[in-house]
Amino acid sequence: MALLEDTPLERQEEGRSTSKMVLSSRSIARRAFFTKSLTIGASVIGLHLLDGHLHDAAAATATRQPSRTTNKDKALRTTRLQACGRATDGRLYHTIRFPSGSWQSSFGIINDQESNGRFLRFIDVDCAGIVDSLHVTALERSGIIWHTIRFPNGTWEGAFGNVNDQESNGSALRFTNVSCAGTASNTLHVTALTRFGAIWHTIRFSNGSWQSSFGNVNDQESNGNALSFTDVDCATIGENLHVCAIDRNGILWHTIRFANGTWQSFFGNVNDQESNGKTLRFTSVGCASIGGDLHVTATDRNGVLWHTIRFSNGTWQSSFGNVNDQERNGRTLRFTDVDCANVADTLHVTAIDKGNVLWHTIRFSNGTWTPYFGNVNDQENNGKTLRFTDVGAAGAV
Looking at the record, which segments are called Disordered (predicted)? Predict the structure, then answer.
């Protein structure tokens, strides 16, 4: 901790440093102006005495301009995939896929990083990248939402935080499924399903405080009373929150929370937008944004993985695409849970198979896929002993 009496001195030094920079910048600017004047004058009489020096002066001036990197810039430069899994023992695990394509050497136990982790066991997990930090939301067995953060230096927040305790109506609500998504303005959106299948929503603001109460999303939609959901995921495009959910009949629905806090007036039926939607029924959903497009992945009742896109103009891809058919080992794999993330403008998909193993594939910007699903458990030293039921994926700087 800095002593109080040190503060004025630091500010004085900052002031001197700032003054020097200003004076230096002004001096270089004057020099560049003077050089340009001489060059023009000399050129008029045909001397060209200072050719080449004007560029040097201008370059020197340019190098003095400070570079500014915003949170939005950082958010757009995601280079690593971070995955969180809920294991069959109820604990949360974490790993990273690096830009080189290699994976972290072993799954890290998130519960061991939190002072209250030894007492908590979870039933669902999701994660979201906010600039260069990873936010994790998880549901414990009693249906309460918990939250923690992995910081850029690899350390974790000291304890899981009880989100229900932050909401005025949290004591009355118990959830079965949770998802989250971050924005470039450092806010975290959380959506969750109650045991009756209604979607609820809250926000963690950039200062660490939470919205005062959970909001009922079904109540915002004209057809919300008629729908009950079994799975939900969300993603942000700019400051808009896109929510995808599967109803009890296996149909995929979509809505939007706009930046001003209002919601789209009704849930839209995604199956109706796809030419093969009438024959498909889903069990799990994950979504992610790339540019202005929303990519949606879902597992059907047979365990096959499908993909579609909602384009920035609001239209949808004409049909669900069968991801298993794009992978050489896709015929032998069947999945129970899926999530996806934007990493460097490519879609990374993580999925849990029926044997509780974690797999990974990539959809590139040209629409092609990696030729096979990769077994993530095989990349981790402790992967052979771990089995997962749920996965969350996020892109991080």
Answer: 1-20
